[in-house]
Amino acid sequence: MTRVSINYLLLSLFILLFGTTGGAAMTRKLANRNDELGWSFFWWWLPFCLALFLCQCLLFPKARTRLLYQLLFMGSMAWTLTFFMLSIILPVFWLSVMAVPAKAILAAVFAAIFLYNLVVGWRLVNRRWADLAAPAFEQEFNPRDGSVNWDKVVRKMRIEPAILIPGVPAKWAAAVWIVFIIGMITGLVIKSHWPAFSAFSWSIPLVLITACLSQVSGAAFAQAVKVRAIEQDRNIVLPSCG
Description:
75% of the residues lie in helices and 2% in strands. The chain is an all-alpha fold. A two-stranded antiparallel sheet has the order 1-2. The relative contact order is 0.16.
């Protein structure tokens, strides 16, 4: 695991601001160069990005010294990338041609997909901890200085994010993605006539891809819970690694 430095904070701030500005510009373009809607997106999305950055600033000092906060900080960095991708996707909600019920359905689908992936990442750590990670921790833990090579512990769990489609068996995933790709191409062709369909056809596949980052965050937060349990059980403080 890479040691946390100030460069992570600066990079996160740049990505969040760049995504907010880019999303505002995209909103303006999708709304036929409507400056008012572009600024509407900017001022609506900016507080969420700044709130995430503030949380990262609060975690940063301890992330440099404690493994627990290092894991929380790295999980929040995955959210930075998630927010950036969302800034590309969310402008569809500013399309005046899309009815409010359609926007509500789309928002619910987005939220469910991200929550599902977050839970998948969390459960993956819990399932593999006892049999794979716990024995690895005992091997990598150094009682002399209370440190642990956490990278080797995590490597034993073989956590690999995957693009998941909720409710769709893995054997059908390829066929569903073919349908998505056809829909995305069709959406481009008929964008001027049915912009709402075009927005749906592009947004949902992009959300599925972006949601992989929620698995990373979920896994990182689950690891932080395990670290906290170890610290309480052994009355120790595990230092950050890297």
